[in-house]
Amino acid sequence: MVLAITTTHHPATDLGYLLHKNPARPQSTETPFGRANVYYPEAGEERCTAVLALEIDPIGLVRNRRGDAGLFDQYVNDRPYAASSFLSSAIAEMFGTAMGGRSKERPDLAAKPIPLQARIPVLPCRGGESFLRRLFEPLGYEVEATQLPLDENFPDWGESAYFDMTIRGEVRVSELLSHLYLLIPVLDDYQHYWVGEGAIEKLLSKGKGWLPTHPEREEIAERYLRRQKPLARKALARLSAADDAPDPDESAQEASSEEERIEKPISLHELRLRQVHEAIKGAKRVVDLGCGEGRLLQLLMRDMSFEEIVGMDVSIASLERAARRLKLDSQPERVANRIKLLHGSLLYRDRRLEGYDAAAVVEVVEHLDPSRLASFERVVFEFMKPNKVVLTTPNQEYNALFPTLPAASFRHKDHRFEWTRREFEDWAGAVADRHGYDVAFEAVGPLDENLGAPSQMAIFNRRAK
Ligand code: SAH
């Protein structure tokens, strides 16, 4: 089984430093299940490829098998060739330091996203190409997958469950390795080792920073833990409690209510939603990104000039509340067809959300970690790129005027930051420049002469090419 990692970063041979494997010196290690080799079929300034090849010893495997009768068949059939959890173990064995994000010689480069490509010529994939895409595309990769015939000599036999897969993206080497490490056995829907509590630790440590917000995190956890429900439940609970992703359900639930209590005297939220509605009028197909409990959706739904309305949120509990608010299960089909709720994350590219006329992002950015704003920006303005984006966020200057809000605190504990008018305009102006939009600003709520309004809105319009 083989994994090839290629970069076109310049000089490409730096890949050797990142992987801690010298391009000039092939390396080989015995593992309990066969020999692992790393070598470089190409190592130039422009392009460099490292290959990890694992020579599985099927006989040894069968001999050493530990009481799992189902293994025998699989091992003898496909284990030597098809990427599986053995390959993940080999990744950890050969590229462990790189997967941890460390590089002695090139520490800065290890921390930087660079153009990377990974190819696995024989990748078992239970769930087909669409599942493969659902795993890697939200992580920002371009996926190329060719389904392999069952037997090249007998094309009539049809397709196999194996793919020749190549993924490409601008990512850190550590991220690429962690993604592959966890997702190969998930695709295979199989683990060669006994899965217990230890596997939860692996899942959480290698999934740090991306798994908690991955739209398929539930399926990933279940498959990774060999569908042992109690383990999966435990892992999911810990995933949502992970530091870098506060429980999205819990924080979303509180987000509206606590903020509303503080802002109540001026009933700001209602005002804001009406103003957003006004700003996206004219569009036919719209998405509400971070739709929460669906208050904007409700408003838009009553306006028949919108033909298709989609709400997306990372919190399933919020989506369920939105579905109840919109009474989705009792609507006539004509209405139900106009509105759709999607579970997803604003931090990952999502093809389902491309091609819409307008997007609303209401009181959401301030819930994102500042280090994730760049991903958010690309997802919305580079990939979804609707003609219009209407985005609101609190105006931090105005907090001084809220009687119940202690000084120097945010309106909600899940806010990662609150921007002054200047900070917001700088950010939005730079985003507009980078992606070919014009941007205008509106105050939301009663205007204070010195401090501005409680909330601020940016309206981005894509420039005609
Ligand atoms: N737009 C709604 C809700 C605002 S509260 C309204 O104005 O009423 C912020 C919302 O952003 C929450 O529902 C939260 O679940 C959602 N959110 C936070 N991070 C997200 C992410 N990465 N992707 C999608 N939604 C996210």
Any descriptors?
2 domains; 465 residues; c-terminal autoproteolytic domain of nucleoporin nup98; binds S-adenosyl-L-homocysteine; 14 strands; Rossmann fold; 7-stranded antiparallel sheet; 7-stranded mixed sheet
Describe the structure.
The structure is a single chain. This protein is of the alpha/beta class and 465 residues long. The protein has two domains: 2-193, c-terminal autoproteolytic domain of nucleoporin nup98; 257-462, Vaccinia Virus protein VP39 (Rossmann fold). It has 17 helices and 14 strands. The strands form two sheets. Strands 2-3-4-1-5-7-6 form a seven-stranded antiparallel sheet. The chain has a seven-stranded mixed sheet with strand order 10-9-8-11-12-14-13, sandwiched between helices. Helix 2 packs antiparallel against helix 3, helix 9 crosses helix 10 and helix 12 packs across helix 13 (295-301). It is globular and about 75 Å long. The relative contact order is 0.08. The model is unreliable at 65-76 and 243-247 (pLDDT under 50). The structure holds S-adenosyl-L-homocysteine. S-adenosyl-L-homocysteine is lined by residues 213, 248, 252, 255-256, 290-292, 295, 313-315, 318, 345-347, 362-364, 367-368.
